[in-house]
Every structure is written in C-alpha cells, then in structure tokens.
Write a structure and sequence with these properties.
Keywords: NADP, Oxidoreductase. The protein is of the alpha/beta class and 301 residues long. It contains 11 helices and 12 strands. The chain is 38% helix and 17% strand. The strands form 3 sheets. Strands 3-2-1-4-5-6-10 form a 7-stranded parallel β-sheet, sandwiched between helices. Strands 7-9-11 form a 3-stranded mixed β-sheet.
Length: 301
C-alpha cells in the first residue's frame, strides 16, 4: 500500500499537466495545484488551487505542508528553477518528488554537459543530494518522445504527413521510444501508487518503439498512390547545427528542435529506444501494428 495520498502539481495548465491532473483525480489522490495566479473555472472545482511564488522557498513550503508528493510538469526555461521547489518540498516534509523531465535521452550521461540537457542533470543531482540527506525520495520518468508530438505537423514530427515529405535521419532506421500524454499521466499516478518500487530511480515506459522508415512503410501501404519526397540528413550534423545556434545566442524553437532531434533520432548512441521498461509495473500497454496504422491513416486523411 502506498504511503502517498496527497499530491501537488506544478505546471498543471501546460501540455502534460492536464493529463497528469486527470490521472491523479481518477486514481483518487487528493490533489493541490500550485499556480502563479488563479484563473476562474480553469480547473475542476474539486481540486484545491493555491497561488504561490515559485521563486520563494517560504511561499512554496507553506503551500506544501501536509503534501506527500510533488509532480512537476513545468516546461522550458522553468526546468532549472525546480531546485527552489525541491528545497521547499524537503522543508515541508514531502516524501516523493517527480521532476519535469519526461524525455527520450535526458538520463544519458553523455549529454550531461550539453546545453538544453544540462539543467535536467542539475535537477537530478539536487534531488539525489536531498535523498542522500534523507529529506525526500525521487522518481524520474523517462517516457520517450510524446506520441502526439511525433505525429504533429512542423519541426517536431517524424514525417511531414501533410506534404508527403520525409527527412530521414541517417538511414531512417534509428529507433525511438514514444508514449502518449494520457499514458504518461497514468504512469505518474502508478508511480505514486507503487512508491517503494519506484523510489530513487529512473522509471522507463514506452508504448511503442518507432522508426521513420516504419512509419513511411505504413503510409505507403495505406496510400500507395502517394509520392513521397525523401531526403536524408546525419543526426550528428543536425545536433551540431543546433549547438552552434545556441552558442551564437539563438535560443529559438527551431534550434532547440535540432538539438532534440539530433540526439533522440541518433539511434543507439544516446539510448533513445527502451528495450527494457517498467511497463508491466505501471500497467502500460504497448501499441499494436493496427494501432499505428490507425494513427497514420488519420494523419494521411
């Protein structure tokens, strides 16, 4: 039986946050939302919403009194500021902290000094210091790329389903784990239910392992009359372009996507495909080939 009953969420209105909120409510946890400012009817009325100053340990500590676990789903530049929330959680007596990471290769030590990834490692080190001092425990959830992002139009997607274009990284056979936002939310709830088995470690889930060529074959099977424009690029080249952009002071999304894709789509170099997972522990079911075909068919319509 888990010792965790009450959970606070930071970043509940973001991309992942609403899915985590729903999963925690469905799992019957007592939920408190930490927010910079309340917005009328933004959240379910059954949920406690508290305004906090995320730069203040005192403000956050007061909000976290009596809370068993903190789940952070903050994004972007806020990743590095999680150390303040961790400090407050430790002071307030929080038992478990799940940081906002939820990535493909964010736990690979080869990337610790790489810009964009370095903040995630700083947060993990901070959590381990607190754990070593007996102040709290932690879990990092590695879930691969969000499935919705991989099928989205634009720079994040694996293929351009709209214009029938494919830029294959290396040969197009590099493997990448992926999990949907809703399943990530449910996995977080299950981590908290299985608090002892998930204590102070990286937990991995993967609904599916994809390759670009795999999706391209499915698309060509479903719509053989379509002609795809195919090009190739080296993942290492894309990564270098992204790092060069950051070094030049360009922190735009296209530059960030180059770093993400240049590492997540680099095959086995950074371990982006999870052949060993905690799917069974957390009740995560893998997608079937039929499931994939249905997703691709929807994107081709």
């Amino acid at each position: 039986m888990s010792e965790i009953k009450s959970v606070a969420i930071a970043g509940a209105s973001g991309t992942l946050g609403p899915h985590v909120l729903k999963a925690l409510i469905d799992a019957k946890f007592q939920v408190k939302i930490l927010t910079r400012s309340k917005k009328p009817r933004q959240f379910d009325t059954s949920v406690d919403v508290v305004e906090v100053d995320f730069t203040s340990v005192e403000s956050l500590t007061a909000a976290l009194k009596g809370i068993d676990a903190v789940v952070s789903t903050v994004a972007g530049a806020a990743i590095k500021t999680q150390t303040v929330l961790i400090d407050a959680a430790a002071v307030a007596g929080v038992k478990r902290f799940i940081p906002s990471e939820y990535g493909s290769v964010t736990t690979n030590p080869k990337l610790e000094a790489i810009p964009f990834y370095d903040n995630a490692f700083k947060v993990k080190h901070h959590l381990q210091e607190k754990a070593d001092a007996g102040q709290l425990t932690w879990t990092v959830l590695a879930c691969g790329a969000f499935l919705e992002f991989l099928f989205a139009p634009g720079a994040a997607g694996l293929l351009d389903f709209t214009d029938r274009k494919a830029t294959l990284f290396d040969a197009g056979d590099n493997r990448l784990s992926s999990t949907s936002l809703a399943t990530v939310g449910k996995a977080i709830a299950e981590i908290l239910k299985n608090s002892e088995a998930t204590k102070n470690r990286v937990v991995k889930v993967s609904e599916v392992i994809l390759t670009q060529n795999q999706l391209l074959r499915i698309a060509e099977k479903l719509r053989p009359e379509d002609k795809w424009e195919i090009s190739k690029v080296a993942a290492s080249v894309v990564l270098k372009e992204g790092l060069d952009g950051l070094n030049a002071g360009d922190f735009s999304l296209p530059v960030i996507f180059k770093i993400i894709k240049g590492t997540a789509l680099a095959g086995e170099i950074y371990g982006s495909a999870y052949d060993e997972t905690d799917n069974e522990l957390l009740g995560v079911k893998e997608l079937t080939e039929e499931d994939l075909e249905n997703i691709v068919a929807e994107k081709l319509a």
